[in-house]
Amino acid sequence: MQRYSALSLLRGGLNGQKSWQRAWRDPAPKSHYDVIIIGGGGHGLATAYYLAKVHGVRNVAVLERSWIGGGNTGRNTTIVRSNYRQPALHNLFEFSLKLWEGMSDDLNYNVMFSQRGAMFLGHSDSDMIRLAERGDAMRAAGIDAEFMTMDQLRKKLPLLDLSDKARYPIVGALNQPRGGTARHDAVAWGYARAADALGVDVIQNCEVLGIDRVGGKVTGVQTTRGSIGADRVGICVAGNSGQVAAMADLRLPIESHLLQAFVSEPVKPMIDMVIMSQSIHAYVSQSDKGEIVMGGDPDLYPTYSQRGRPDRIEGVAGQCIALFPALSRLRMLRSWAGTTDMSFDGSPIIGTTPVDGLYLNGGWCYGGFKATPASGWTYAHTLAKGEPHALNAPFSLDRFETGATIDETGSGPMPHHR
Amino acid sequence: MSGPMRLADGGLIDRSRPIRFVFDGKSYQGYAGDSLASALLANGVVLFGRSFKYHRPRGVMAAGIEEPSALVQAGSGGRYEPNSRATDVFIYDGLQSRSQNRWPSLSFDLGGINSLISPFIPAGFYYKTFFGGPKLWLLYEHLIRQMAGLGMPPTQADSDIYEHRAAFCDLLVVGSGPAGLAAALSASATGARVILAEQDERLGGSLLTDPATIDGLPSDQWITKARESLIAAGGRILTRTTAAGYYDHDLVNLVERLTEPGQTPGPDGLAQRLWRVRAGRVILATGAFERPRLFEGNDLPGVMLSGAVRTYLRRYGVRAGSRAVITTDNDDAYRTALALAEAGASIAAILDSRPGDSVRSALVQKAMTQLPVHFGAKLIAAKGSAKGLKGASALIDGKVTALDCDLIAVSGGFSPIVHLHMQAGGTLAWDELSGSFSPDQTRQNQTTVGAAAGVDGLSATLLNGWTKASPKAKATAAPTCASDDDVALNIIADWEPAPQARLKKAFVDYQNDVTAADLDLAWREGYRSVEHLKRYTTLGMATDQGKTSNLVGLARLAKSEGRPVPSVGLTTFRPPYTPVTLGVLAAEATGAHLDPRRRPVLYKTHAAEQPIWQPVGYWHRPRAYPMGTENLHQAARRESLTVRTKVGVTDVSTLGKFDVSGPDAAIFLELICATTVGKLAVGRGRYTIMLREDGMVMDDGTVWRTEENRFLLTSSTGGADRMAAHLSYVRKVIAPDLKVAVANVQEHWAAVAVAGPLAKAVVAAVLPQMTVPRHMSLDRGDLAGVPTLTLAASYSGERAFEIYAPSDQIAPVWAAIVKAARDLGGCLYGLEALEILRIEKGHIVVGGEIDGRASPHDLGLSKMLRPAGGYIGHTALQRPAFAEPGRLQMIGLEAVDGSAIPEGSMLLTAPKTLPVGHVTAAGLNVIKGGSIALGFLRDGFSRTGESLIAWSPTRNQTAKVKVTAPVFYDVAGVQYRD
Amino acid sequence: MLLIACPNCGPRAQAEFTFERPLASIVTPTETLPDLIHKLFTRDNPRGPSWELWRHTYGCAGWLKVHRDTHSHQISAALPVDMETPS
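Structure tokens for the assembled complex are given below, as produced in the milestone run.
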């Protein structure tokens, strides 16, 4: 792999950018792989990378229907944090956060992981108790969490409405200083490039049409580029998990919903952190480019359309202006939508399936981006060993059958109740 | 005259109305009808701004909303708007505008250093450097963020207001050029209700640049007549109104701008309005964008789109230069050349990339007689600086030729504006000769007409709009134009720059500084999907969203790929079409009006007592009624002690209340409630819990049999809406055949709770004619002349009653009860005392112990469950995890070290171990003192007596605690009985 | 935003409605545990036509059966909840 560095940029500048190589190859599919990963998003590419790097499994293909990173990897609001209340969740996401902290150097690709702090605002004493519970649970697990005083908030975020006239007056905040944002596309590209360098075939424009099974065991996949054999197949197509799993006659605890997000026109720095709220279901941050990135609740009905409802965007705009009144005169530049796998307890599914040799990674609801490295790491472990890692063992497919659900918000068994 | 570049006459500006405005601290004069761009150009200003990455000097390129470069900051204070396109701001008296993304000034910008190091910062350079860990990146990033961004952010709340309006119509026409007007007239003539939306401040579209004779009238008169006839037919005409988004089922959002950026609105204070138009049909007459071309220095001030040059000339009476070079691949630019010549400018050359043997229209032939026309010719480079152009070099007859010019008018063909068609789910067809996509299939009820549909020439455009708008329209009745006005484009798209042009100075995306060389580099590095190319280089991601650049970039990618343009794909067209102010998206629903605020019916009565308020969902309820200098905790302590020793009164009107009646009412309630209901005697009530379908506890409350076939069900305040929906679902979907009616009586009944050892005496005093009901019984009686229902139920653990009265008659009931209680030494108590009392009794609460993760078993309520099952949640409770060891079970906690148990803290068996549980709610032993709490503990039911640590690292609080049963007061349960 | 023809109120914007669940996921308390798990906790999740239960929450508050394509969003039927679903 051609190393990237300041020196390589200097060289590129001096030779008219002639020295740059392809970031990843464009290989034709082989007839057989040890492992095939369906889905070239961040999670699938990370899985391939860790399979090759950690487990030495290099005869791996990532099959992408379209272009890598084109699903929810390229459609999220890029927030990275591990500030969850439930231990199974904060353990997984904290492991992820630690991988994020080394990712740019590990991949030799700057994913711009920016630890600007990710903060939950509290708007009442009961909000503050729930935040304390979250923070205490995190701290007990060795994860950073700290309250910010009103003075600290005023200093850090001078444009935040801290008045008591607000509909939900802000009374405090729980910050995770190590939380922040990353450049989403770069994550897919960085993993693709690093996996490719380890021998993984990243195959774009290759749609899986069927999953081959002999005697109940997976033998490979049918694709738009022919049939490809495999010992193990990992599904990693959040948003479309149900569609792909149905190829192996599986019915999943997942509904496909839609989540929208939007950005403003870019301005000079005005919001220095990732802001979320315990009472207002919106989140705001500012990208390096200067755009204010905003999102909120999903559209709450099943759809694969990737076309959002305008009233949802309008609601989120109102919520964000309520937090930062100065946002009112900024303009929404671009809105978009992603199809999300809504699981029935709000937590992901990473593990084995009833089909021998077939594995599932999905159900990320609207929180998958931050998990990218840990998802890849634990899924690679599961695919290599045939059984889950301790971190993803709780996220089994059968937990709805057994009742061992992991419900962070406690909002119940319907995706639209979240 | 306002400025040296203004022509002596002509244009659609009102020369009788001079307007003064400020740009970068200097005062200028323009005329009513001027855009900021035209007024500045008229004054000889050529430098408008700096580009995003290299801080290159930029002028104005376009005359409309597609402008990528001339962005300004307008207004101030609560009306300040960054990133406003100078081409899309109409000047008004007092307009304050500034250039942006430059420091210290527009003409001397230190950021311009980026231009010098541009060889080392090609597309995507930031992915290849700044390594060394997140701490180091944060430092680099700080500098990058200062450099990035465009305008300065607003810092104040908005001064103005916004509103939403809904509208319906048979036909929505977007765009009021010749096609749109013809369409609106045609539909209107058949009686259709028409809404016509135009983003400009005047109707006319291309007719404002190219006046014509239509139906024998000068086009300005024809437009006026069209407007009048549309209005006369009941149509609605919205100018300065942009169709921003086309959504499912023919919903189109229109944004109407009632003010210009920074402008003070009229007396109603409205800055903008969002129209949600649900249209029977939509006609998209959105026109076409002219495309720039690739040559070196194509971004310099003085390089403009050909159509824009003509618009400034004709509409605004501004001649953007005195010696022009035209570069074109079509006939339209010849109109610009002739117009410039007519206005006294000299034409250095018309560089037509089309081959010399191509068909020549009358227009071209006319130009050839007057002007230096060169076929097969290309521009190589523009030369100039922030001060303007100093000339150009061109490839003419195969030779590099120097040209003297101060203006370059560029036409790289036209791209139909298909954004709304694509947002609506349409598909596109490619025309190789003109190099353009135009609408093909539609998915919704929309039709694209005119230039947006690739229709060429004015007469065809008028006919197209007329006939497509109405199936009944007769082609013979369509508006017609004079033959002179009927100019065809004859585009022969040619994407290839002159071989001599240096591509690293040939810009594709002007605002984001993406050059042709950047695109080629990204392709070489493997970013070959159109989406990868876009995201890697940031092509088309600037505030203009690639309106002029996308197709040029696509063509470049197609060349690299060696494939035709349509096969390399398109990026998705997403709302909004042009950027939309967040304020108008939100309208009223922000700030204090973000969500409704519900006030209990006794709100004013409580307010007179000056309580501390507490939000509960949308509700605001009294939390405590402090006396004198009491703080919250002192007041709550006093109130709870008064309840324990005397009597207290509180308002419980916000509780969920449901009237369930009919022969099958008991059967229905046994679906809802996990406890036994059917055996309840008339006049009796009992505590109950309701489960979700997955077996978790959803809510708790009481159920009362008021008559043989009638029950009153209560539930928590916070869960009342959810309970209402749940009851409706069960009634209408699960058990539609039951003979039962469910009415939500939450706001019909108000209720007053009286609790304490003297509660019975209070009830006896206010309802002397009624026998005071025993615990979990009810009775009726008139109180202060109001019919009331008294339920004997205790939440506090004391003898207690809830007295229900119709909401509109609660005031005298409340007053009488409060007086009676106070006469006996009692007081009002709020939610905080209620919380203290319920914790002491171990009563669970939604949002506390009812956390959506607890089963009835976890809450110690197994014995209440109806053994026969049949209730919602029963089946799911049979899942094995509910019976496995290690579950979090509800327990009580007592502080043993005198400290307060922190709410929400973690329970540890020893320091530095992982938590085994947590505290849900903490309070105090009201009479004895001392901190107590409720919580969840792994296998907690069997751990009574165990010592634990309640640890809150975020608050630096610790308490040593002992596990107890979750009840601390009156364990035997005698206080609430007679 | 969808336009849903409420059988009681006529065509209304989606903002007035809430999606409840696919009709196939309606479970009664008499369901066996395996049936409940199958219906409540798994989905066909089709990319295409689907029968769904919606509520006109901010209108008549009635429940309706909607036949809707989850990709094109075309709605081919919106029936009162007590009406038989065409097979």
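Chain C touches chain A at residues 1-2, 13-15, 18-22, 37-38, 40-45, 47, 50, 52, 70-73 (CB under 8 Å). The longest strand of chain C covers residues 49-55. Further analysis is deferred to the final report.
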